[in-house]
Amino acid sequence: MENIIKGRARLLGDNINTDTNCSSKYLPGKDNAYVAQHAFEKVAPAFVGSFKAGDIIVAGKNFGINSSREQAVHVMHLMGVAAIISHSFGRQFFRNTINNGLPAVECDISGIADGDEIEIDLASGQVNVAARGITRAVPGLPPAVRQILAEGGLIKFLQKYPDWKAA
Amino acid sequence: MGYTIAEKILAAHSGGTPVRAGDVVVADVDFAMMHDARAGNAMKMAAKLGANGLPFAKRTALVMDHYSPPPHIEAANTHKEMRAFAESSGAVLYDVGDGICHQVMPEGGHLTAGDLIVGTDTHSVTYGAFNALGTGVEGTDVAAVMMTGKLWFRVPETIRIELKGQLQPGVWAKDVTLKMLGRFGAEGANYRALEYTGSGVAAMEIDDRMTLSNHAAELGAKAAILEADDKTIAWLKAHKARPPKPVKADADANYVERIEIDTAALVPQVARQHNIDDVVGVPEVKGKKINFALIGTCTNGRLDDIRQAAAILKGQRIARGVRMIITPASREIYLAAAREGLIEALTRAGASFEAAGCGTCVSVTGHLITGDGDVAISSANRNFKGRLGNDKSEIWVGSAATVAASALTGFITDPREVEGGQWRAA
Ligand code: SF4
User: Residue B121: helix, strand or coil by DSSP?
Assistant: First the structure.
């Protein structure tokens, strides 16, 4: 995983439950490919149709709230989500993004519009939207977490460092 | 500046150096749990890690509770896989009908005061009732614990909640949490740990304390921890838990917030249909007609809940047109209820019992379908639209006392106004 992620902003609203909108919890028997084709359609009907691999989800507050399934992150990988920026995340969802190697950054999203080019610098902790003159500092992730993310998630991290001791 | 219980437990499990809210630690986990709704994912992740065995699987419980009994082939096959996994890995197995994960974990002696426990379920906060830091994780996390015995944690900020005064008869821990949900909103404590303290907690029996910790999940809490007292220690001993290592907060611990609740003045509460934080006092809505009454779940399916229901319904008959289902939280509770004659009393009153498990919580077993326009009153923890399988019905949530009193009259009823509604655990 690179420290600098660039992509197109795709906006979603507040309080999105990713169990309901991005998992098969309520679609028994449906696989990730099916869920990926219908993700978020309850809250943003046109979202998936125009989503391209490498896009960045920019969501309002409490993204992933009340949602515990890490399947949602697997589905987002399948969609090609490069990163997520949100004002705040549901606790379990945030944990799942790290465990599954999807960068998720807490940041004020005001002023960012759908389609804006965004740059996230994970190392220095910055979100930039050059066209709008936005530069925002974001809380840096602790090293223990950055290492897991850098390896692409907890499973890959432990396959490489079975005793949790990263070099 | 002193430390909170969560800070102390996480420090003690990650080498002993003090830690503060916001730090990230890799900590030794005492016991882990996965249930049948998430075990498929956890076992898949474990398969990717298991090349050198899963040495900590013997400190993991697999519980068949959500699909108890399994309503479709997919669930029945997951159960088969869980049995085989337990056999080969040495994990502890709880089969169909043994009970809900959050009940069998403490009953099975798998946790003690001062422990760090994870489970694939948001209500893993229940273990806080025993002074353990219990928290919800996903399959990848439990797979990591089975392989390494460890997991990463961000140390949470803590809110201290003082319950001032003993609850009146007919008022329960359920009502305390509903009141808080009304005040702070669902997820109002997202990410935070809660510490409950005060004379209101001291007066509660263990069953009610478990409700208090359990229901904090609806507030979004990462943990909901009580201090251990004589009742806690005696309970743990009786269930053959490992020796307790009680952890207390420092008097000058760093809390993000301190809240006081006048528990002595509290009246029974209900959450109205669809939103667990749309809460009013029962006196404000009494007279609302109901036709389905449910007692069970990891929040309120314990022995004291069933005793309370029996105190109200023994020798009576539930109202015409009402159906009532009770699901004990575990086989042990089912047996105790049988020994005490509660099953007979409640069955004669018109209730039906189902196998211990999550049955009354969510419509996965398919036994709870409501009709169009039906109004259910339930002792569960969630009431969003369609939770019982029909978008056109309503679910209201209250204590087991409120549910039983309402089943008796056919209307939402204040338990303090019916005979037996003031029953108290001795
Ligand atoms: S009883 Fe309900 S809330 Fe509790 S573990 Fe089972 S499904 Fe989850």
Answer: coil
